[in-house]
Amino acid sequence: MKLKFLTIKKAHCAILLVVLVAICSIVGVCYVVRATSSPKPQYTIVIDAGHGGVDGGAVGKNSKVTESELNLKYALTLKAICEELGIKVVMTRNDMNGLYSPFASNKKRSDMETRRQIIEQSNADLLISVHMNSFPLSSSRGPHVFYDSKNEGSKALADKIQSSLRENIAYSKQNANNSDLYILNCTDLPGALIEFGFLSNKEEENLLLLDSYRQDICYAVVCGVLEYLSM
Ligand SMILES: [Zn+2]
């Protein structure tokens, strides 16, 4: 059942990719007509692995895995899938270090400011920020996407990703929600912050640690991104 489902997902993504390539080709032809020296247009995505360095974020109930470590793993998996599809990726961080200056008195502010600068300089089409959730009520679970309500593209992107997650990943939340988050507010880019799951739910924590689950959920996210780009 799962194999069949994955095949369908991959076929779906392949169709979306063909549509995207066709759009790129048409835009490419227009570019050639207008200015032969213009490069072929290519989609660029910023992938932001939340937390890092002294800021480990949420902690797994069982395994004590830190959110910052899982965020990086998920961000790198998203990057690999996007690059396979020919999408250029700019990462805010590629290792476990935070992005703050060692001299900063407020490390969180310094870290977020560096992320904002990377996003601003990326010239990207959209932003995905990767996080893991935690909640006092241990029964809470499921991937959940957030957007900036002042940014139309952010809502459209988050809706597409949430809908792909809902179709493909059990326990996914029904709808994406608005949230006042600096990483989304600091840019005009359409951005979505994805809470991939709850580290406060033991069962979900175990799932989040599995390579196969990480692949499946990242694949579903990228399908949502492709749906948004093909709009
Ligand atoms: Zn977080």
Structural write-up:
The chain is α/β, with parallel strands linked by helices and 231 residues long. The protein has a single domain (42-229), classed as 3-Layer(aba) Sandwich (Aminopeptidase), CATH 3.40.630.40. Helices cover 49% and strands 14% of the residues. The chain has seven helices and six strands. It has helices at residues 2-34, 67-84, 107-122, 152-168, 182-185, 202-208, 211-229; strands spanning 44-49, 88-91, 126-133, 144-147, 177-178, 191-198. Strands 2-1-3-6-4-5 form a six-stranded mixed beta sheet, with helices on both faces. Helix 2 links the parallel strand 1 (44-49) and strand 2 (88-91). The structure holds zinc ion. Zinc ion (ZN) is lined by residues 50-51, 57, 67, 131.
Give the low-confidence spans: 1-8, 23-40
Number of helices: 7
Q: How many separate domains?
A: 1
- Rg (C-alpha, Å): 18 Å
Secondary-structure map with pairings?
Elements: H1 2-34, E1 44-49, H2 67-84, E2 88-91, H3 107-122, E3 126-133, E4 144-147, H4 152-168, E5 177-178, H5 182-185, E6 191-198, H6 202-208, H7 211-229
Parallel strand pairs: 1-2, 1-3, 3-6, 4-5
Antiparallel strand pairs: 4-6
Helix pairs in contact: 1-7, 2-7, 4-7
The structure holds zinc ion.
Q: Would you summarize the structure shown here?
A:
It contains 7 helices and 6 strands; from the N terminus they run αβαβαββαβαβαα.
